[in-house]
Amino acid sequence: METTVYPREPQVLKELRDATEKTNFGSSPMAADPHASQLMSMLLRMVNPKRTIEIGVYTGYSLLTTALSTPPDAKITAIDPEHASYEIGLPFIIKAGIEQKIDFIQSQALPVLDDLLLLQKEEGSFDFAFVDADKQNYGNYHERLMKLVKIGGVIVYDNTLWGGTVAKPDGEVPGCKREGKVLAAEFNRRIAADNRVEICLLPLGDGITICRRIS
Ligand SMILES: C[S@@+](CC[C@H](N)C(=O)[O-])C[C@H]1O[C@@H](n2cnc3c(N)ncnc32)[C@H](O)[C@@H]1O
């Protein structure tokens, strides 16, 4: 981290991370890991998406990463029911001059995804998606994103190792981590068996799974 990640972290992202850590919102390590963010930035530059979806914004570390790594005319649909945490990061998004790329929707994600699919007929309209929200719904998000993201597009899921607990016997997992372990392990098995995607689970940050839609 000291050699490869922090020295290359854009200054405005570092400022957003510091501001997050200084607030009450920073009491739990919710923001995307800077190492995972470095990977996402590279992926985004390779995919060069015009439209992306982010589920789970918090103070906006991954959202600002996305906005900094996409073309000037890219549009990001960012969904989170909490606005107060987003307001912590907003000054840095404005400072970076990329707020015009972002459509922040204050809502639970599922109704927004259903609306995009059923009412707005946005099937196949997105090139990239990042999911970092309620783990109970990862399977539901996956089914909707498999329609919203076009064939060849990329979906990235965060926290798929859940602190490494997915690889540990239950007895070695603290009680507060057990539900997350079960949810992450179930989701990992589900997408491993999904032949509509290529996948790769990378052991950086809290575990990050990259899916490329192939059918
Ligand atoms: C781990 S944090 C996201 C961190 C963020 N990606 C970052 O880099 O800072 C999880 C976020 O998911 C949001 N969330 C929880 N349930 C949600 C839901 N049903 N739909 C959308 N977002 C949700 C929470 O409000 C929280 O801000």
TrEMBL record:
InterPro entries: Cation-dep_OMT, SAM-dependent_MTases_sf, SAM_O-MeTrfase. The keyword tRNA processing does not apply. Coiled coil: none annotated. One of its GO terms (biological process) is methylation. GO terms for molecular function: O-methyltransferase activity; S-adenosylmethionine-dependent methyltransferase activity. Keywords: Methyltransferase, S-adenosyl-L-methionine, Transferase. It comes from the Eukaryota. Methylates caffeoyl-CoA to feruloyl-CoA and 5-hydroxyferuloyl-CoA to sinapoyl-CoA. Plays a role in the synthesis of feruloylated polysaccharides. Involved in the reinforcement of the plant cell wall. Also involved in the responding to wounding or pathogen challenge by the increased formation of cell wall-bound ferulic acid polymers. Belongs to the class I-like SAM-binding methyltransferase superfamily. Cation-dependent O-methyltransferase family. This is Caffeoyl-CoA O-methyltransferase. It comes from Linum tenue. The lineage of its organism: Eukaryota, Viridiplantae, Streptophyta, Embryophyta, Tracheophyta.
